[in-house]
Amino acid sequence: MAEVSDEDLCRKVAEGDGQAFELLVERHQARAFRLACSILKNESDARDVSQDAFIKLYESAGRFDGRSRFSTWFYRVLVNLCIDRGRRDRWWRRVIPLSNPGDDTDAPSIDPASPDTGPEDAAIQGQAAGLLGDALERLSAHQRIAVLLQAQEGLSSREIAEVLKCSESTARVHIHRGLAQLKKMLKDD
To answer: Rounded to whole angstroms, how far apart are CA atoms 184 and 189?
Structure first.
């Protein structure tokens, strides 16, 4: 079943095929988690939202109409769940801090150093990753999501437009402005 397209697997899931669902999860769980982590900046929330996205996939596979690629449809579901989680949790962060200032225990753990780098290179890479993460946080939600979908997932502007439910030209504007702002912020830092 490994050579079956995602679109065909989704149709089989709609018919109740559990093996097709397992294969879709296997194919997309790492990318879904990585994208959710990039949006939410919290591994626990990203894990929950990723699982919720797969549950939603299982429940609504019959609504996939094939007008777009499966991955575009699925990422739209995932991004919407991330946005909903961000909205839902935002007021809690103002009332009850989740961590001490400067304590980044809820942030995704990223080890930017490869085994071939020395301590100085690892420190520079870690600092660059931190600056990039901070700069991404300062972008608008649509710009951040558009840039992440293009850079991390390789989606086209048409696919990003479908995920964000906007026109393709608007998606290109989000990507262009997001990248321009990142460049400016990183040059200023």
So the answer is: 9
Distance of alpha carbon 55 from alpha carbon 81, whole angstroms: 11
Tell me the pTM. 0.59
Structure tokens at 163: 């995920």
Closest CA to 33 of 153, 179, 167: 153
pLDDT less than 70: residues of the chain: 1-2, 87-129, 189
The values of phi and psi at residue 12, to 5°, are: -70, -35
Read off φ and ψ for residue 70, nearest 5 degrees: -55, -45
CA distances from 21 to 10, 25, 56, 124 (A): 7, 6, 12, 41
| Residue 149, both tokens | 């979908």
Quickly list H helices, 15-118.
Answer: 18-40, 43-60, 70-95
Three-state secondary structure of 97-155: CCCCCCCCCCCCCCCCCCCCCCHHHHHHHHHHHHHHHHHHHHCCHHHHHHHHHHHCCCC
Q: How do residues 87-137 score in pLDDT, each as one tens digit?
A: 665 443 333 233 333 434 343 333 344 445 566 656 666 666 677 888 888
How many whole angstroms separate alpha carbon 96 and alpha carbon 87?
15
Residue type, 131: L
